[in-house]
Design brief:
Blueprint: H1 2-13, E1 38-39, E2 45-46, E3 90-96, H2 102-122, E4 127-134, E5 140-142, H3 151-163, H4 175-181, E6 203-210, H5 229-233, E7 258-264, H6 271-279, H7 300-310, E8 315-319, H8 320-325, H9 328-343
Parallel strand pairs: 3-4, 3-6, 6-7, 7-8
Antiparallel strand pairs: 1-2, 4-5
Helix pairs in contact: 2-3, 2-9
Length: about 350
């Protein structure tokens, strides 16, 4: 699989890169109120973590379909993203589906963000920047406050955003990620004027939270150059990152120093099946049942699988109901540990 990934990178590296769009307009939004993976015998991927997403019901597309290399022993104290010995630390970009129903999931999303941040820090990542943006709009909601926001502050942020949301998601689910990423160093939080990713970082995690139906199927129609999202975001040294910004802002991170995590509802069950499955999880909020819906368009599962062709563990997908109601802390711990272990390897072995 690793050899295949190298061949694909060489092929795609010779392809065209889209012309950078005009500077994205990031309007609206508020600041926060308070400031192992290893190949399996069939070529698949298994993750080494100490939690469990048991049950989940049939047909839910639950669990995850990616991870990060399990390097065996614990990570070294110094690795890309650790912030030590001159390293520039780690940034996390959370893109959340913002609609009226987001308010019913705001507390759960706040907990997901706080817990993942805590587990990344526990495994040696120095979180320098955490930003929250809208998944289907070109805007950042916050990013200049604490790099480790509390669950309560994120909840308030998302509840406020949901109150004023009148946007119906359209286009490809990765469309605004690309528009934002090509000028990430210039992306601005309107309410504060801050640019959370103005300075290059040593590692970048992108997380997409989507509790509804995806507007469009995964495929080459998502990209002006006719590439699939995996072909766009899976290439080495991330040429999609800041290509529209001044050369001094280019990050040119090796692929192993970025990860994509997709937390979404299922793409292979009916609305009734989804509600019954999630309602059977005692910890899933009752008020959130009316906020979720499955998707008839397959997107995050093939996106994650496509990224993992380029490098195993580059993409991970988790069922939203399982993430909210089951052992998210255990999963986050394993996710962070495995990524840190990979980054602790010599550069030519990642």
């Amino acid at each position: 699989m690793r050899a295949l990934g190298l061949i694909l990178v060489a092929t795609l590296g010779s392809g065209c890169i889209i012309e950078p769009p005009d500077l994205v307009r990031l309007d609206g939004g508020d600041e926060w109120p308070d400031g192992g993976k290893r190949p399996t015998s069939d070529g698949g991927i298994s993750i080494d973590w100490d939690g469990g997403f048991g049950g989940g019901g049939g047909g839910g597309g639950g669990g995850w379909d990616g991870g990060a290399w399990d390097a065996g022993s614990g990570p070294r104290a110094t690795f890309p993203g650790s912030g030590t010995n001159g390293d520039r630390g780690t940034g996390v970009l959370w893109l959340v589906r913002i609609d009226r129903s987001t308010a019913n999931l705001a507390a759960s999303y706040g907990s997901l963000i706080e817990t993942m941040t805590q587990q990344l820090i526990a495994q040696g990542f120095d979180i320098r920047r955490t930003a929250v943006g809208s998944l289907y709009e070109e805007r950042l909601l916050s990013g200049s406050g604490s790099a480790t926001p509390s669950a309560a502050s994120v909840q308030t942020l998302l509840e406020n955003a949901a109150t004023y949301s009148g946007t119906t998601p359209t286009g490809c689910s990765s469309q605004h990620l690309l528009t934002l990423a090509v000028r990430l160093s210039e992306a601005t939080v309107p309410s504060s004027g801050s640019r959370p990713f103005a300075d290059p970082l040593g590692a970048l995690l992108v997380v997409m939270l989507d509790h509804g139906s995806h507007p469009q199927d995964y495929g080459p129609g998502c990209d002006p150059a006719g590439k699939t999202p995996a072909e766009r975001f899976g290439v080495e040294h991330m040429p999609w990152l800041n290509i529209g910004s001044p050369a001094t802002s280019h990050w040119s991170l090796p692929r192993s120093q970025t990860r994509f995590l997709f937390v979404s509802t299922s793409e292979n069950e009916s609305y009734t099946q989804l509600r019954e499955r999630c309602a059977a999880m005692s910890a899933f909020p009752r008020t959130a049942l009316d906020a979720i819906s499955p998707s008839e368009h397959s997107f995050y599962e093939p996106f994650s699988a496509g990224l993992n062709v380029f490098q195993p563990g580059l993409g991970t997908r988790i069922d939203l109901c399982q993430a909210v109601a089951q052992d998210w802390a255990g999963f986050s711990r394993g996710f962070a540990k495995n990524w840190a272990q990979l980054l602790s390897l010599p550069a030519d072995q990642r």
